Every structure is written in C-alpha cells, then in structure tokens.
C-alpha cells in the first residue's frame, strides 16, 4: 500500500509546471540526440573516412547502439511520466507509478549506461592487443569479439536486472522510481564505484597506448639506419598509424563520457546526502534534470562527426582505399610494397657479386 504522503506529493508533482517543462525539455533533447546518432551511423556506413580493423568497427557500432538504447528507454520513461502527471484523477494515489511498469524501463536504461562503460574499456583492451600483437591487422581474430560481447551482456544483465532488483517490491507504487534505496545502497555504491574504476583504468590505458605508438613512430622516423627501416614492415608502420588515429578519434569521446558520469555521480551524491526521499517535489525535478546521459549522446555525436571530418582531410591511407577499393586490397597493396623493399637490396648485392 502507498502512504498518504506519497499520494499527496504525487498530486503536487502533477501540478508542477517546472517538472513538466523539464520532462518536455529532456524529451526534446533526446529526439535531437537520436537524430545526431543516426547521422553518425549513416556517416560510418556511407563514408569510408579511413581504414579501421574489423573488431574496432564492431565495438564502435556497439557503443553507438548502447547510446541509442539509453536514449530510447530514457525517452520512454519520460513520456510515461509526462503522460501520468498530465492526466486528471480524483484520487491522489492514481498519480503514482507502479514498480512493475517503471522497473523494466529503468533497468534497460541502466543496462545501456553500464554497457557503454564496458564497451569503452573493451576498445582500450582491443587497441592494447593491436599495439603489442604486430600481426593483429593481418589476422582478423574473429573469436575475440564474440567472447567480449557475450561476457559483456551476461555481466551487465546480471548487474542491471538481478543485483539492483533484489530488494524491489513489485507491488509498490511510487512517485518517482530510484534504484538507490536503503536496502540496496551497499550494492548500488559498489557497482557505481567499480564501473568508475573501470573507466579510469580505461582512460589511463588509452593514454599509455597513444604514448607507445607515438614513441615507436617517432623513433622509426628519426632513425638513420636503412636496415631498421626495412626490418620494420609496412604493415607494422600502418598498424602504428591506425592505432594512433583510432585513439585520437575515441579519446575525446571517452573523456566526455567520463566527465558526464562524474557530474551525474556528484549530483546524485549531493541528493542522497541532503534528502533521502525522492518523492519530495524539488528533488524529483532535480534528479530528472541532472541525468546527464542525453548530454553525453549529443556531445559524443558532435565530437565524432567533427573528428571524422578532420581525419578525412589528413589521413594518408585515403588514397590507398580510393584506388584499391577495399580493405583487403589495401592490405595486399602494403604486402606488395613490403616485398619490393625487402627484395631490392638482395638483388643489388647479387648483381654486385656477378660483376666481381
């Protein structure tokens, strides 16, 4: 049974113009975010701005999907809240929302948020492997992505739908639903801090990978030894260049995600320390307004489109792709060049011996 206080606060929230304006604004922003993400996906599918490994493409597409996933379920929840608060009821308790309706939507939203973070970590691991496994660009490693994807879905589903839903009262009706309750606060904080630690480690790994590839590329360019230039295969040079381009593309997106997660976490912490009851009208509006996921979706799309535009103008592999048509042909092109460079000195030495 719902308490009379909850029913009264639900009635008050239904008369709040500020709450409805926040809901309308967030719905509009989510629509803008959906259009921008659709533009990003269309750009990736129609314009080959530079050659990327198959696995990194899969991970980027999954990240875009999870952002769309978050936007969809966030918008669904906002529309339901706006609809129920805009109706007229004689009984104040009719403004409450049942847990069985809002919990699956919120869980799906949280699933997408956690999956975004795990995908960011996966990209850093994938680029780490690409940095130290020099045959990675030639070997497709097709089993790596299915293992990553299955492990991620199982892990995130367990957190979102099971761990955070253990103490949920399915028969309850609430003013505004929140996962953070007195019963599950330890689990909630553990999950939040663990995912934050994962994202911090991923950012550190991104910068380390960028440093290693910059260092190796610079050392190769500065060397005067032709032997070192030849022993460093063209595929290895290409791989270092691709690692650098991918990290430069992803790193601003990762930092924006981290910043918005920090802002969201700080806002939720301020709320939990100042008022433990989300049914309060002011804090219901505050909690809805400080959910930063839609801002990340918009920022990510703008950063990606801007970065890709710069890459299109500066990437040296564009001519290879344009002339050869496909990634496989470009790889064969690199192999042919490598063979020419490796064979030519040997022929010169043989002809020199014949003259003598």
From TrEMBL:
Membrane topology field: Multi-pass membrane protein
Name the record gives this protein: G-protein coupled receptors family 1 profile domain-containing protein
One Gene Ontology CC term in the entry: membrane
Keywords, ordered alphabetically: Membrane, Transmembrane, Transmembrane helix
InterPro entries linked: 7TM_GPCR_serpentine_rcpt_Srab, Nematode_rcpt-like_srab
PANTHER family documented for this protein: SERPENTINE RECEPTOR CLASS ALPHA_BETA-14 (PTHR46561:SF11), SERPENTINE RECEPTOR, CLASS AB (CLASS A-LIKE)-RELATED (PTHR46561)
Keyword ATP-binding applies: no
UniProt main location, coarse: membrane
Residue stretches spanning the membrane: 21-41, 62-83, 95-123, 143-170, 190-212, 249-271, 283-306
Presence of the UniProt keyword Amino-acid biosynthesis in the record: no
Localisation: Membrane
Signal sequence residues: none
Biological source species: Steinernema hermaphroditum
């Amino acid at each position: 049974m719902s308490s009379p206080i909850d029913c009264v606060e639900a009635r008050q929230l239904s008369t709040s113009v500020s709450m409805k304006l926040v809901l309308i604004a967030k719905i509009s922003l989510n629509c803008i975010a959906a259009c921008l993400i659709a533009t990003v996906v269309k750009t990736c599918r129609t314009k080959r701005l530079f050659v990327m490994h198959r696995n990194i493409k899969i991970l980027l597409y999954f990240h875009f999907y999870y952002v769309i996933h978050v936007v969809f379920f966030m918008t669904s929840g906002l529309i339901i809240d706006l609809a129920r608060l805009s109706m007229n009821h004689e009984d104040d308790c009719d403004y409450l929302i049942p847990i069985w309706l809002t919990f699956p939507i919120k869980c799906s939203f949280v699933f997408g948020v956690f999956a975004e973070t795990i995908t960011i970590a996966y990209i850093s691991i994938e680029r780490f492997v690409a940095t130290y496994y020099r045959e990675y660009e030639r070997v497709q490693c097709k089993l790596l992505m299915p293992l990553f994807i299955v492990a991620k879905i199982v892990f995130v589903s367990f957190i979102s739908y099971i761990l955070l839903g253990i103490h949920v009262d399915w028969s309850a009706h609430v003013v505004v639903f929140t996962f953070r309750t007195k019963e599950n606060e330890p689990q909630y904080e553990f999950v939040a801090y663990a995912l934050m630690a994962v994202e911090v480690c991923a950012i550190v790994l991104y910068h380390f990978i960028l440093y290693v590839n910059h260092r190796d590329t610079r050392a190769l360019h500065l060397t005067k030894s032709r032997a070192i230039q030849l022993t460093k295969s063209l595929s290895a040079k290409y791989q270092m260049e691709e690692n650098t381009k991918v990290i430069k593309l992803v790193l601003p997106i990762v930092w924006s995600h981290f910043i918005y997660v920090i802002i969201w976490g700080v806002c939720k912490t301020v709320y939990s320390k100042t008022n433990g009851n989300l049914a309060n009208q002011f804090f219901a509006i505050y909690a809805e307004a400080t959910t930063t996921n839609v801002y990340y979706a918009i920022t990510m799309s703008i950063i990606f489109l801007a970065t890709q535009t710069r890459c299109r103008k500066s990437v040296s592999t564009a001519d290879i792709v344009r002339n050869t048509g496909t990634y496989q042909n470009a790889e064969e092109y690199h192999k042919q060049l490598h063979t020419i460079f490796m064979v030519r000195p040997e022929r010169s030495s043989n002809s020199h011996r014949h003259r003598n």
